Amino acid sequence: MFEGTVRSNLDPLEEYQDEHIWEEGYMNCALDKCQHGEEVRKKEGKLGSTVSKNGENWSMGQRQLVYLGRVLLKKSKVLVLDETTTLVDTATDNLIQQTLRQHFQTVLSLQLHIE
C-alpha cells in the first residue's frame, strides 16, 4: 500500500467519485464488493483514514482487501494474482476467493501452499 489515505490507495489517480468507492447501498460500491466497506466505515477518518508506509498500520488481510477494492473499482476484465492469500487468515482467504468468483471473469492466480 502507499502512504496516504484509504481513498488514495483505492483511487491513486483520483478518477472516481466517492459513491463508486464506498457509499453504502450504491450498487457498484468497490469496498462493499471486496467485503471491506463495513471496516472502513468504522474507522474515524473513513476514506480519509491514514495509511502508513507500506500499509504497516493495516493487517495483511486488510491490505489484500484494499488491493482487491482497487481492481474492482477499475472494473478490470482480467486479473493476475501472485500469492494473494499466502499471509492472510482463513476467513479473509474465503472472502477473497468469494469476491474473485463473483466479480471477475478471468483470474490467473499463482499460489504456493506447502502443507
TrEMBL record:
Keywords: ATP-binding, Nucleotide-binding. GO terms for molecular function: ATP binding; ATP hydrolysis activity; ATPase-coupled transmembrane transporter activity. One of its GO terms (cellular component) is membrane. It comes from Quillaja saponaria. Residues 46-85 form the ABC transporter domain. PANTHER family: ABC TRANSPORTER C FAMILY MEMBER 3, ATP-BINDING CASSETTE SUB-FAMILY C. The keyword Transcription regulation does not apply. Pfam families: ABC_tran. This is ABC transporter C family member 3 like. It comes from the Eukaryota. The keyword ATP-binding applies.
